[in-house]
Amino acid sequence: MTLRARIQLQLGAFQLDAELEASPGSVLVLFGPSGSGKTTMLRSIAGLVPPQQGHVEVGGRVLCDTSAGAWVPPHERRIGYLPQEYSLFPHLDVAANVGYGLSTLPKAAQEVRVRELLHTFQIEDLKAHPTHTLSGGQRQRVALARALAPRPDVLLLDEPFSALDLELRRAARTEIRRILKATSIPVVLVTHDREEALALGDAVLVMDQGKRIAQGEPLQVLGHPAQARVARLVGVENLLRMRVAQADTRTGVMLCEQGSVRLEVPLVDARVGEDITIGIRADDIILASSDPSGLSARNRLPGKVAEVAPRGAGYDVLLDCGVPLRCHVTQRAVEELGIRPGASLWAVVKASSCFVVEGS
Amino acid sequence: MIAVPRRARTANPLPQLGRIATIVYVLFIGLPLVALIARALGSAGFLQGLTSEMALQALRLSAVTGVISLVFIVVVGTPFAYQLARGRSRVYQVLDSLVELPIVLPPVVVGVALLMAFGRRGLLGPGLEVLGITLPFTSAAVVLAQVAVAGPFYIRAAKLGFQGVPTDLEDISQTLGVSPWRTFWRVTVPMAWPALVGGTALALARALSEFGATIMFAGNFQGRTQTMPLAIMSAMEVNLSSALALSILLLTVSLVILGALGLVARAQGSRR
Hints:
The structure holds two protein chains of two kinds. By secondary structure, chain A is an alpha+beta fold. Chain A is built from nine helices and 21 strands.
């Protein structure tokens, strides 16, 4: 059963106008900054926010069609929804939360289903616990078990990891991936975390200011974004404005220049003399203490360290090579290479790590 | 000479002041209560006062009208309070501030207003007369007066209770296949329960002690409109021990309600 949704909605000055499609057994990631309309999109699909104009259908069953006046209320949609803060019922214990959506089943069948879910999510020991005693990770599992209990046709997850601390996120991600794969229903997952999108998404849809601005395979869209707007949203740290100096159709590379800086990048449809924007992710740059030789990497740029700042577990280094280049390195690399402001270093970048970004 | 440390002279005077104020206040409230109890239990006619015809009739009337008022307040007040808590229209914002008016209005004024509306020469009087309904100076008028004065206490508490239930939870309930009506009973009411019970107790207490609006709109007729507070006033003129006995009875009821409120608050505290 495929989910198809088109939503148009005006909320004050904010306008949402987007469509999406999610196929069974796959995870569609809605990616975008906060305020881009991702949550409203989910709530609208679930029927909690009626669109001014729109169409929602699951496997051919029309849930909302404003032009035909069709409207199925949320409680008849069979769409599971996991909100950001999980919203567990505080007046019920864990087992009652999980079984909440099963009230139409006979008592015995309810108990079987609850036991099954408690087992799948490894929360059997918690079944009689009140929800306020649970940890973040436990709350997430209870909420997900509750959403899946009535066997929904679609599952909507709104930033399911945002309430967890960093260490827990990776573990929870692996587990959720496994469970989502096993359900074989369409899943729409909202996030603004690139790593999460790459780890969980089969497809990604980038939203900004209520509009869809890119869509496709996660590695392609998030790794090599084709538009400057998308690149900025997904956090491509280096966007360089350069002029095409040579284009070689035989080897499939272009040579681009800005001042004394020259970069070899994959060939795109651009004329010699044209100005283009090149994106390079900070993670894709290698730093060396001397001019490296015998490398397959095509670009080696000498420069001076302008800035070193701690970033998570490693460091963020700003290297001035004529153009500023931002690179991510580990603590050990900083120590061994003696990276400090003023130090001379070489930046090494593979041609294939450079990608051309449309617009400015 | 021993120098007094500067700190000692500039020490915080608040605790000392607080202790003195506590003693003054406790004596002020406690002394009359002790006097009332001592006098009532000491008087020979206590049991007689309690079982006099007047007292028994007042007791019965208070119990019956109190329960009817409470049922009416809860049945109409609950959906109204929910609408006040959730309604987004301007109308409800205005109503929200007006609904508490009877709390601050002198009850006598409420009584006069009721007369002007439902009295024989009131706004609806002629219309009601055609239907053969006379409200003023009947037991029904007692109920109306109690509802008007005590209702806002329940509505205010219930509204705050409903506002404390996150709409997210009601939304989630619906995505789990539970209709809005059943969501109200499975999520909203259980979560607002302590507030609803507290509001009910407050409204009951207020209805039982209602005096001003009742005497204005319903009068003071033994067996028909003379509730306990009115009976106490009448008894003071003829039979002090009867008044004392009724006072003790109302005091006991109030203490029971206060205790119940405390239990509810504790239950609420332990659940969080």
